[in-house]
C-alpha cells in the first residue's frame, strides 16, 4: 500500500505533538526536518542548511489552552520542478 505525502505528513505531525509532551529528542526533530525537506525537494529547490524547524506552544484559536505547534521556516529556490 502506498501513502501520499499528505497522509505521511499528518502522521508525522501527530507523532510530533505526542513527542512534545514527552520531551522529544533533538534527533527525532532532525529526522522530521530531513523527511520534510526530502519531500519538498521533489517539487522545488530547498536550501537544507537554512531550514529552521522547532516546536513551540501557542494559545489555541477557540480556547485559552496552550497547544504544541510545529514551526517551520523553509527557504525555497526560484523555480519549481516539473512533476507529473
Molecular structure report:
It is built from 2 helices and 4 strands, in the order H-H-E-E-E-E. The longest helix is centred in the first third of the chain and has 17 residues, at 5-21. The chain has one domain. The two termini are 20 Å apart. Helix content is 39%, strand content 29%. A hairpin with a 6-residue loop joins strand 2 (52-59) and strand 3 (66-73). The strands form 2 sheets. It has a two-stranded antiparallel sheet. Strands 2-3 form a two-stranded antiparallel ribbon. The mean pLDDT is 77. It has helices at residues 5-21, 26-41; strands at 44-46, 52-59, 66-73, 76-80. By secondary structure, it is α+β, with helices and mostly antiparallel strands.
Task: Looking at this protein, list some descriptive labels.
39% helix; globular; 2 helices; 84 residues; alpha+beta; two-stranded antiparallel ribbon
What is the mean predicted local confidence, pLDDT?
77
Order of neighbouring strands in the sheet with most strands: 1-4
Task: Categorize the overall geometry.
Answer: globular
What is Rg?
A: 15 Å
Task: Give a short overview.
The strands form 2 sheets. The protein has a two-stranded antiparallel sheet with strand order 1-4. A two-stranded antiparallel ribbon has the order 2-3. The protein is α+β, with helices and mostly antiparallel strands.
Amino acid at each position: 500500500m502506498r501513502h501520499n505525502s499528505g497522509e505521511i505528513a499528518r502522521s508525522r505531525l501527530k507523532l510530533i505533538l505526542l513527542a512534545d509532551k514527552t520531551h522529544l529528542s533533538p534527533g527525532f526533530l532532525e529526522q522530521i526536518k530531513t523527511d520534510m525537506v526530502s519531500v519538498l525537494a521533489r517539487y522545488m529547490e530547498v536550501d537544507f542548511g537554512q531550514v529552521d524547524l522547532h516546536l513551540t506552544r501557542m494559545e489555541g484559536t477557540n480556547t485559552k489552552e496552550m497547544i504544541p505547534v510545529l514551526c517551520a521556516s523553509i527557504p525555497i529556490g526560484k523555480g519549481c520542478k516539473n512533476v507529473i
